[in-house]
Design goal:
5 helices; alpha+beta; 26% helix; single chain; ten-stranded mixed beta sheet
Amino acid sequence: MNEQEGAWQQFAREIGGEYVDGAVRSRVGGWTVTLDTYMRIIAYAEGPVTEVPVTRLEARFVTQDTFRFFVGRQGFFQRVAKLFGMQDVTVGHPEFDDAFVIKGKDEAKVRTFFKDGSIRDLLQVAMPASTAQFSVLDNAIGPRREQKPTPVTEGVSPDFTRSVPDERLPRDVDLLHFTDSELITDVERLKALHELFSKTLHRLVELGSAAPEAPGPEA
């Protein structure tokens, strides 16, 4: 048993989830949260093409509106978020605003969402480095197949822009999405990520952006 397998099995036990085929699946309310990995290909301007393991968490939910946001640590996210036509949003908590770049189209609702101090605290623990990103993706983007993407220059195209049309989500389903370009084996950090997903999904319901019931099995 390698380090990742041991850590992820422990994580699954501690949250009441299930470790199967290298992934952890757990329930948060009616939603399913999946932790897995995939390989990202990075092509540098000079030097060889390299593969890096990416840790990913995802949960699908029934959307009630067009509320979307993207969160990344200072130093990475601002290089790519302009692709989505979103604005920088400050939430009014200087320590948090100094640490993170937040993007959204509905600035007022983004600020309302991040009034929840527990979510801000969890992000500090769950996203310690600029390699991580946390977002709500709409159904027009959807998930990616488990395949190697076309090499891209690091920092130009984030992984969530590479989608496969025939695997896009149903119209009423959005995706809560986290990635980090490292293999996360810290059980406490994984638990913080799981709690972040739980808090976020319930917060989205509270704000009227997500339905309390989970998507059907076909979604």
